[in-house]
């Protein structure tokens, strides 16, 4: 157990029946003081996920294959075909255990919780003990590079209330969620083989969400994702050419002109990016130059809790149909500095975007976007910003 005294969050770690780690992040009594502890045992009859089969073979984890045409790694995670898909309310695996009921196949043993993080039961990335992640060549063909997808995938439950959303949590609970992101970023960055930690949330059926319980995910990648690698290379080129931090220059330019700035607080600024790709897109960044969430001060984290909730409130008012606001489906992700390279050239930012371009109308990636990543925006960044400014 550990206690973050500044945010008053107690972290308690345990293991699920199959060996996966689960962590409770408590901000309410009697748990935050340690007077009581959430349920730590998991009585499900789940086999050890790393137990060898009857023939003594280790389980096969997900695999990475390198695209010989682009150099990008692609995860092959066939076991995810059987993951949970839109379960009924009485079979929600992210809900707390029902008081007095026989314990079923839920992921969280406690009858209530504040915030929980645990290893995904159906991961895209998984380090299997005893399995090397060295690059090998399939069928001895040097073009076909493959390696174990030796990373980690976690789920973060924002609330025990299945009808809630991240937008509806209290500022105190939002602060606890931030502490969970910080805690997991620090721990995963320190894990062998991890090159990047990406914390994100998918919200809404339009995004393809298969579990509507309010939750997000954290991926610890054993390589730099393509967008991250491109952003890092661009920032390093900017530093070499100007001697300055690219993220700092972008923020200063947005503040100087103000046209696309939609929200400001003491420590944070939200703006629509100059070259927005999506029908709704906002970047939220700290005023101070920091590489990742763990580098934020206590005051910056507290301010983030209220600023983020205000941004989500405005985004849920962006589209209105018959005078009724439409909750915005979105993807929101933290772009943090890589774990082991280029940290001095990186600046923390949150990117939030939506595929909804109008009530009842989605942006589908057309052939030129899906085929060659040549993006076409269906509006202009200035129009997006004006709408968010009107809402404010």
Poorly predicted regions are none
Output the CATH topology of the largest domain. Answer: HIT family, subunit A
Strand content: 15-25%
What is the number of independent domains?
2
Q: What's the count of strands?
A: 20
The geometry reads as: globular
Structural class by SSE content: alpha+beta
> SSE order in H/E notation?
EEEEEEEEEHEEHHEEEHEEEEEEHH
Major sheet: arrangement of strands: 1-2-3-6-9-11-10-17-18-14-13-12
Q: How helix-rich are the residues, as a percent range? A: 10-25%
Radius of gyration: 22 Å
CATH class of the largest domain: Alpha Beta
CATH architecture term of the largest domain = 2-Layer Sandwich
Name of the CATH homologous superfamily of the largest domain: HIT-like
| Distance between the first and last residues' Cα | 41 Å
GO biological process, one term: galactose catabolic process via UDP-galactose, Leloir pathway
EC number: 2.7.7.12
Pathway: Carbohydrate metabolism; galactose metabolism
Enzyme class: transferase
Could you explain the architecture of this structure?
The protein is an alpha+beta fold and 392 residues long. The protein has two domains: 2-223, 2-Layer Sandwich (HIT family, subunit A); 227-391, 2-Layer Sandwich (HIT family, subunit A). Helices cover 21% and strands 23% of the residues. It is built from six helices and 20 strands. The strands form four sheets. A twelve-stranded antiparallel sheet has the order 1-2-3-6-9-11-10-17-18-14-13-12, sandwiched between helices. Strands 5-4-8-7 form a four-stranded antiparallel sheet, with no helix packed on it. Strand 1 and strand 2 form a beta hairpin. Helix 1 (171-189) packs across helix 4. It is globular.
């Amino acid at each position: 157990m550990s206690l973050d005294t500044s945010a008053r969050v107690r972290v308690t770690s345990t293991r699920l029946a199959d060996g996966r780690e689960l962590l409770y992040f408590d901000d309410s009594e009697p748990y935050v003081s340690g007077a009581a502890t959430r349920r730590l045992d998991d009585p499900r009859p789940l086999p050890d996920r790393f137990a060898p089969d009857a023939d003594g073979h280790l389980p096969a984890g997900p695999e990475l294959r390198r695209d010989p045409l682009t150099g990008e790694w692609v995860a092959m995670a066939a076991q995810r075909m059987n993951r949970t898909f839109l379960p009924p309310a009485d079979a929600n695996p992210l809900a707390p255990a029902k008081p007095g009921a026989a314990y079923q196949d839920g992921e969280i043993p406690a009858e209530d919780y504040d915030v929980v993080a645990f290893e995904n039961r159906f991961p895209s990335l998984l380090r299997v003990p005893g399995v090397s992640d060295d690059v090998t060549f399939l069928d001895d063909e040097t073009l076909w590079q493959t390696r174990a997808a030796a990373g980690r995938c976690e789920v973060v439950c924002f609330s025990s209330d299945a009808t809630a959303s991240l937008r509806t949590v209290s500022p105190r609970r939002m602060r606890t969620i931030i502490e969970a992101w910080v805690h997991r970023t620090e721990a995963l960055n320190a894990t062998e083989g991890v090159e990047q930690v990406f914390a994100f949330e998918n919200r809404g059926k339009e995004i393809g969400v298969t579990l509507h319980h309010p939750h997000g995910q954290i991926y610890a990648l054993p390589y730099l994702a393509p967008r991250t690698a491109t952003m890092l290379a661009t920032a390093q080129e900017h530093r070499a050419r100007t001697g300055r931090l690219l993220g700092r220059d972008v923020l200063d330019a947005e503040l100087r002109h103000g046209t696309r700035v939609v929200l400001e607080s003491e420590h944070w600024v939200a703006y629509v990016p100059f070259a927005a790709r999506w029908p709704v897109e906002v970047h939220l960044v700290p005023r101070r130059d920091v590489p990742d969430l763990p580098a934020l001060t206590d005051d910056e984290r507290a301010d983030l809790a209220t600023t983020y909730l205000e941004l989500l409130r405005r985004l849920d008012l962006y589209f209105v149909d018959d005078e009724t606001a439409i909750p915005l489906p979105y993807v929101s992700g933290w772009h943090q500095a890589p774990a082991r390279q280029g940290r001095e050239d990186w600046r923390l930012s949150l990117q939030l975007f939506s595929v909804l371009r109008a009530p009842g109308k989605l942006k589908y990636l057309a052939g030129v976007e899906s085929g060659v990543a040549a993006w076409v925006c269906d509006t202009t960044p200035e129009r997006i910003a004006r709408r968010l400014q009107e809402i404010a």
